[in-house]
Amino acid sequence: MPLLEVRDLTVSFHTTDGLVQAVRGVSFDVEKGHTLGVVGESGSGKTVCTQTLIGLTPGADVSGRALFDGQDLLRMSSAELRKVRGARIAAIFQDPLSSLHPLYTVGWQIVEMIRAHRHIARSAARARAIELLDMVGIPQAASRVDDYPHQFSGGMRQRAMIAMALALDPDLIIADEPTTALDATVQAQVIELMMKLQAEFDTALIIITHDMGVIAETADEVMVMYAGKAVEKADRRTLFYFPHHPYTKGLLESIPGSTAAGEKLRPIPGQPPSLISIPTGCAFHPRCQYVMDRCISEVPPLFDIAGGHTSACFLPTQILGLGEDVDRERASAAAVGRAENGAAARLAARATEEIETSGVHLPDAGALAGAGMSDRSRDPGTSQNSPDDAGTQQ
Amino acid sequence: MCGVFILFLVLVAVFADPLSHLIGWGPTQQDRATGTTADGLPVGPGRIHLLGADQLGRDVLVRLIYGARVSLVVGVSAAVAAVLIGVIIGLCAGFLGPAVDSVLARLMDVVLAFPFLLFAIALVTVVGPSEPLEIAVIAFFSWAAVGRIVRGQTLAIREREYVEAARSLGAGNLRIMVVDVLPNLIAPVLVYVTLLIPISIVFEATLSFLGVGIIPPTPSWGNMLDDAQQGGLYQVAWWFLTFPAAALVLTTLAFNLLGDSVRDALDPRTERLFAK
Amino acid sequence: MTALPHGTSPAAAATAAAAAAPASTDDDDALLTLDDVVKHFPIRRGVVIKSEVGQVRAVDGVSLTVRRGETLGLVGETGCGKSTLARCMTRLYPLTSGRITFDGRDISRLSPRAMRPYRRQMQMIFQDPYGSLNPHRRIGSIIGDPFAIHGVADGPERKRKVQELMELVGLNPEHFNRFPSDFSGGQRQRIGVARALALRPKLIVCDEPVSALDVSIQAQIINLLQTLQSELGLTYVFIAHDLSVVEHVSDRVAVMYLGKIVEIAERAALYGTPRHPYTAALLSAASVADPDRAAVRQRIVLHGDVPSPIDPPSGCRFHPRCPKAQEICSRVQPDLVPVLADLPTHVTACHFPMADGEKLGTAPVEPADDRPPGTGVW
Q1: What is the full per-residue pLDDT of chain B (276 aa) written as tens digits?
Q2: Which residue of C has its CA nearest to B176?
């Protein structure tokens, strides 16, 4: 039995603008000692999804099931949940400065956190706090334990958060963009530390991030989210090298320096949808260059591809991977699925054009001159004057 | 609700003349025949004087109506004048750099440190009371508070990236102040104006009450209250004290509530909550 | 892929021809030259009388050249002074000392008024697509700002030009009257690009233009900037903390650490044979979106944190964290010169530069200096 088994989780919020459907039926498992990477762009519902599990989305309409060690987290009272949170499920957030109270010392906060769940003496808790800070690599932990959060650097604060998360030997740690606010060198340290500690304590980890680089280094399994749904789930290597869903493929091809992208980036056209008005059918269809007729009206379920690899896309399951050959296969498979001059055909043509041009519509030279330069080009006398001259003429 | 009350007050003030005509008494008209009893005491609310009469037999309702006019004129114009001065000085202090700021900020501190009532009484004693002077005095003592708020806001806005963007485009100080900073001040300033109006109305009443505001016999809520407490008249004629006091409290309350709802309506947080 | 400026007039063509001359570090080729630029921010303390208690040495003696038509990448971690340097380049901040030459003219001491004509020629694109657009103004008016400020076009003509710009950067020109809050982050960044392009500048300083954007949108903006560069012959200074983005867009790359440039080289040289240990560490730490490559790469984990720029280490500023540091490093500040057998275009400020293929010891060096960073300033 997996440590955490989430089934058909749905979360929505009522706002003055309308119903925000943040999560629309997401299922996933986290095994003991494994790392699940949840990747998606802002507004994909990845954060709401995990915050709901630990009861941090008050006021939301939640349905579904989230069995943690056999108990449904979504049915727990807030008192029961409080016992689980911190002790058995710990969380690390993006901005450690806002998760640490500025007016108390780091040590005090760890001590209080331990004593809230365990009945041990203050001195013992303090010793534990020092031990934890030392374990996460804070130098001179015995004296730094009495520092305030602002006396720590960004990387040290994130380490302190990790220390706090580990304080009670949790079974599961949820890390929401744990390294986004950190610099590259510090990010490397923090990831290394998290991986080392995870291996040591056999903790399950959910890492939520928009950074495919972090996923590539940490995750065992990966879930890609788009507009509140999981669009593809696979183990790490499969996801990076044999993606099926066009959104996953698009994400990989957008990353500068990645093997998938090569010299020219192929961005995903358009903008992510608002969670208030989600497109019909496959939510990704307005941005997809392989859109077919059925994508506009039918919601694709997660199709099984092979050994735990699932993808919510109507394209044939044998078309996997990156590269021009695979893209041609995708294109021809998609062409079969759409009527001549239908809505899908138009959307696909527009998306393809936008990928090629990045949405840049370069007008002809004359029109370009009109875009700001006409004052110069029309009057060669002033066109190349030095700025000083231009200044006196004004 | 508070809007309705304020609208009603404004209409009453505007149509004070026809209203008093309708009621049948002038604001300073003394009804010696029916306004006072045989032993010289004012009559209470009744058929002839709806809200009673004062010690000189003047109709309290009519005087309240004319008092509303004074309160609104003085309150609104003092508030607007204070805000204009405050915005200009606060904007300059916040935007034009530390040198200008230290001079203007000290100036504001000095104004705020002045004992308001003592100064007002002294000034009026020297110059003689008048309505414009009263407006000037209230505005003079209110602008600094506005100036401080505007200065604080400006200091914050000055550091925004879009101000930096405007500078990088070559925009001058004046342009940035007018085009980029000022629109961001509209919301807080509008809220402050609505909150400053009741303060100014109470200031006005205070000055009139102390006899350094509106010159009798012109009615204002302040000097009506003054009349009422003279010689302890309110002990026998409660209406004389109660009605102007109630008018003052209700008006202040209405403006404060209006200020709150203006703030709620303009609060950028409510509209930005889901913009991101 | 050095793009040449495409002028529209004979004079511009001449400039293009000059730029096409054999690549050299000649001054003719230089659009922007920074000479020992220093920017210190005073720290004032005190309740009644404020006195200067120290200085944040944000930029501390930077010299570099930006050539016509190139993209110069500038990388460094938080607090290294790269954004301050960008604002010094565009003269948004007055310099503490040093000299900036733009297009052959010294602009380092010009008054804001005298600076105005140059502002037409150098523009900035900012990091925060939410913060860099005034939320209370319509985007037509925001994009039209450069025209209004410089009195270039008015009324219907301005509107036409603004709509052309919107079309150019991939925005719907009919959205002229909308407010910034109606647009997503990527679209807002396009608005920022349109505004920067309005007066057809020669130089655009991009300060982390894509850091705040989602990956797929980031790629849109990068491609947009690249297309515009090749079409309009723009010169970019591209500041970012993401090394792969910088690698993707830059012709040359400068690495900054604590207010100083530690290494400048052509892109391939810098990413292929980094000389400065800091550059090497930075490159090794960058995340790689490829599980197999991520598994085999050797990460140089630096210990400790970046020291405070209020009181930077003596000598080479990197020495307290450097695995190769020796005694001389804490005493003598190394010059930015070609090292080993490098081309003159590859300069490094290091006493013990890394040889080709040298692996930096990943052995932990206990941080000598692990004070809290700064005293609340950074």
Answers
A1: 777 888 888 888 788 778 777 777 777 777 667 666 666 677 777 777 777 777 777 777 878 888 888 888 888 899 999 999 999 999 999 999 888 988 998 999 888 888 888 888 888 888 877 888 888 888 888 888 889 989 999 998 888 889 988 988 888 889 999 888 988 888 888 888 888 888 888 888 888 888 777 777 778 888 888 877 776 666 777 777 888 888 888 888 888 888 888 877 776 544 443 333
A2: C149
Give the 3-state secondary structure percentages of chain B, helix then strand then coil, rounded to 5: 75, 0, 25
In which residue are the tokens 């002790």 written? A87
In a domain, C123, yes or no: no
Phi, psi angle pair for C38, to nearest 5°: -125, 135
**Judged by CB atoms within 8 Å, which residues 209-238 of A form the interface with C?**
210-217, 236-237
Alpha-carbon dihedral of residues A251, A254, A258, A263, nearest 10 degrees?
150
Q: Which chains touch C (3+ CB pairs under 8 A)?
A: A, B
* Chain C CB within 8 Å of residue A286 CB: no
Say if strands C97-102 and C30-45 run parallel, antiparallel, or are unpaired. antiparallel
| Residue C17 covered by a domain | no
What is the rounded distance in angstroms from the CA atom of residue B201 to the CA atom of residue B248?
8
Angle formed by the axes of helices C155-168 and C139-149, nearest 10°: 120
A-contacting chains (≥3 CB pairs under 8 Å): B, C
- Domain for residue C157, yes or no? yes
Nearest CA distance, A229 vs chain C (angstrom)? 18
- CATH code of the domain in which B253 resides: 1.10.3720.10
Domain residues for the domain of C157 are 136-194
At residue A305, φ and ψ (nearest 5 deg) are -105, -60
Interface test with A, best of C121, C215, C256, C271 (most A CBs within 10 A): C215
C-alpha closest to that of C57 among C371, C264, C306, C236: C306
Alpha carbon distance A352, A348 (integer Å): 6
What is the pairing mode between strands A229-235 and A4-15? unpaired
Query: Number of folded domains in chain C?
Result: 1
Q: Where are the alpha helices (DSSP H) in chain C?
A: 10-20, 82-89, 112-119, 139-149, 155-168, 185-197, 215-232, 243-249, 267-272, 277-285, 291-296
Residue B143 forms part of a structural domain: yes
The answer, yes or no, to whether the previous bond of B217 is cis (omega within 30 of 0) is yes
Contact A20 B273 (CB under 8 A): no
Q: Is residue C163 domain-resident?
A: yes
CA-to-CA separations, A343 to A295, A296, A315, A340, in angstroms, rounded: 11, 9, 18, 9
ipTM of the complex: 0.81
- Residue B53 is part of which domain span? 49-267
What would you measure as the largest C-alpha separation in chain A, in angstroms?
A: 84
In angstroms, the separation between the Cα of residue A182 and the nearest Cα of chain C is 8
Q: C145 to chain B nearest CA, in Å?
A: 8
- Is residue B174 in a domain? yes
CA angle C169, C172, C178 (to 5 degrees): 110
Instruction: Work out how many domains chain B is built from and give that number.
Output: 1
Beta strands of A81-203 (E only): which ranges? Answer: 89-92, 172-176
Q: Could you say which residues from 160 to 219 on chain C have a Cβ atom under 8 Å away from some Cβ of chain B?
A: 181, 192, 195
Nearest CA in chain B to C141: B179
* CB-based contact, C123 to chain B, within 8 Å: yes
Calculated CA dihedral for residues B25, B28, B31, B35, nearest 10 degrees = 90
Whether the Cβ atoms of residue A168 and residue A90 lie closer than 8 Å to each other:
yes
**Structure-block tokens of residue C52:** 């200067």
The topology (CATH level 3) of A4-226 is Rossmann fold (3.40.50)
**Residues shown for chain B:** 276
Per-domain boundaries in chain A: 4-226, 244-307+315-357
Q: What is the DSSP letter of C202?
A: S
